[in-house]
Model the fold of this input.
Amino acid sequence: MPADAIMQDNAAQNAAALDNSLLFRTFMDRSSAGMLVLSPDLRIQYANQAFCRMLGCDRDSIPPLPKIVHPDDDAMARDKFIMLIRGELMEDHSELRYLRRDGSAFWADASISVVHDPADGSLKYLVLQVTDIDARKRAEAALIASEDMFRSAMEHSANGMLLSALNGACLRVNRAMCEFLGYSHDEMLTLNFRDVTHPDDMQRAADAYDRIRRGELESHSEERRYRRKDGSYVWGLVARSAVHDHEGRPQYIVVQITDITARKEFEERLLHLTQRFRLALQASGIGIWEQDAGADTVACDDRTLEIWGFGPGEFDGRVSSLYARMHPGDAPRVRGLIAEAGPHHTALTFEHRIRLPSGDLRHVRVYRIVAAQEGGRITRLVGTIQDVSEEVARARLLLAAKEAAETANAAKSRFLANMSHELRTPLNAIIGFSDLLASGIVRTDDSALVKSYAGDILSSGRHLLNIIDDLLDLSRIEAGKYTLDEEPLDMVEVANRTIAMLTDQASRDGLRIEADYAAGLPKVMADERAMHQIMLNLLSNAVKFTPRGGRITVRLDTMPEQGLRLRVTDTGIGIAAVDIPKLMKPFSQLANVYQRQYHGTGLGLAIVRMLVDMQGGRVDIDSAPQRGTTVSVWLPSSRLLPTG
Done:
C-alpha cells in the first residue's frame, strides 16, 4: 500500500479512536452511577466523576483499589477479581463497603464485567459500576434492629403482645400472651380473636377491629373478658394500634393486653362491699356527711338530707342552713360541746333536736370525727347522723311504764295491806263469836244473844265470801279463764233480780233504790252471769258510798247507733275527776281516808270494766265530790236483738 494511503488510514483510525474515547468519557461522566475501569492487574485506568464524588476525591488523588475497599470486604473482592481474570466468571454482582477519603465507609452495589480484546480475545479491561446503597443498607439495618427490638420487647414484656392480621388471625405472639390465655405458642397461631373473646364482649371487639381496618381509628383500648383454654375467663386491658404500609394503609394490628383480673375481682369485691355498706346504711337509717371545717360547706348523702327535712334540690350545701333547722334550745349546747372538744378530741357524739318545716320535732344522734388537721387546726370533719326519735319515744314510754309499774306495785302493796285487814276483820269476828259459843261462856238458853252472835258470824262469812269471789273473778279474767256463755238476755229481769238482792241492805242503811226502764227494751246477746256481776258491783258500790237518806237509781235505755245503756246513779260522796282512772285499774282504791272509812277490795269497778270489755262495750263515769256518781255501761248495738 502506498505510504500516503497508509498515513491516511492511520489518521482515520486515530480520528476514530479519538472520537470513541471522547464519547466513552462523556458517557461515563454523565452516568449517575460510579464507573471504574481497571486493567487486568487491577490498576485504575479511569474513574468517572460520580465515583470520585462517592470517594470524596478527584481523579488524580484516587487511591489504588486495595485502599478503596473496606478491609473486612477486601478478601471477598480479591477472590471475585481473580475468578473474573481467570475467566471463571464473566460478571459479578456484589454488595460491599468502600472507604471514602476521610476514612468513613459506605455500602455500594458493585457490578463487574470483563472486556476482551476483539483481535485476540485476551482480557483487556475490567469495568466496575458502583451504586451507593448506604442509605438503603442503613435503613435495612435499622429495620433489622427495629425488628430485633420489637421481638425482644415482645418476648420480655410482662404484658401479652401479639401481631394480628386485619381479619383477627394471630401472626406472632409472645410468651406472656400464651400464659395469659393458657395456650401454647403453636396453638395461639391457629386462633382468631373471636376464639378467645367472651360472647358478651364479641360485638365491641369486632367493631373495634373493623374501625381500625377501615382506618377510622389509629388506636383503641378497652377492658374486656377473654376465655382461657380451660374455659375460665380473665379480664384484660387491651390496646390495639395499626401498622401501616408506605402508602398509609393498615397492614397489621399490634395488640397488647394487660392482665387486670385481680383488679377487676378487687373492684367487684369492693362494689359488693359498697353495696352491702349502702344497704346496711339504708337498713340502719344512718346518714353520712363530710364538712370542710374552714368553710361553710358540707356534703351530705340523701339520708342525711332526708333526716334534716330537705327535699330534692332544696339544700344549698351550707352548714349554716343545717344549724338554722336545729332546735333553738339545743344549738348553744351543741356549739359548746364542739368548742370544748377542740382539735384534740377527734371523736364526739351528741344528740339534739331538729325542727322540721312542718313544725314537728325530730331527735337525732350525731357522731363526728376529725378526719384531717393542719397545724393544729381542723380542716375536715366526717360523721354520721341517725334519727333516734322512735328510740327517744320508746325510752319515754319505758320510763312511763316503769313509773306506772312502780305506781301499780305501790298500789298493790297498799291493796294487800288493806286486804289483810279486810280478811282478818271478818275472820276475827267469825273465830271470836264461834269461840264464845263453843266455850260455853254464853248461855245457850239465851236465844236472843245466840241468835245475835250467829247473825254476826253469818254476816262476816258472807263478807269474806264476797272478797274471795272478787279475787277469784279477777284472777280468772286476767288469766283468760273467764269464758262468756252468751244467750238472749232480758236486762230488765237481771236488773230487778239484782236490786232485790240489795234492797234489804239499802233499807237498813236508810237508802232508797229506784228503777227507771225505757219502754220496749230489746233483749241483748250477753253473758247472764257477767251482766249480773256488773250490776251487782255497781249497786254495791253505790250503797257503800251513799250516806243515809240517799237515793240510788237504776236506768235502762237505748241510744241510736250506740246500743243499750245501763246507768247506776247515786247521791253519794262522789269522786274527783283525777281519781276516776285509778278506779278502773285492779288493786286501786282512793285515798287512805276512803280505805279506812269504807271496807272493800277496790276491785269492783276494775272487774266491771274487764267484763264489759270482754263483751265489746265501754264504761263511763261521771262524778264530782259531794255531788254523787253516775256509772254508765254501754253494750254495742251489734248485741241488740230484734224486737217482736
User: Anything to note?
Assistant: The longest strand covers residues 361-374.
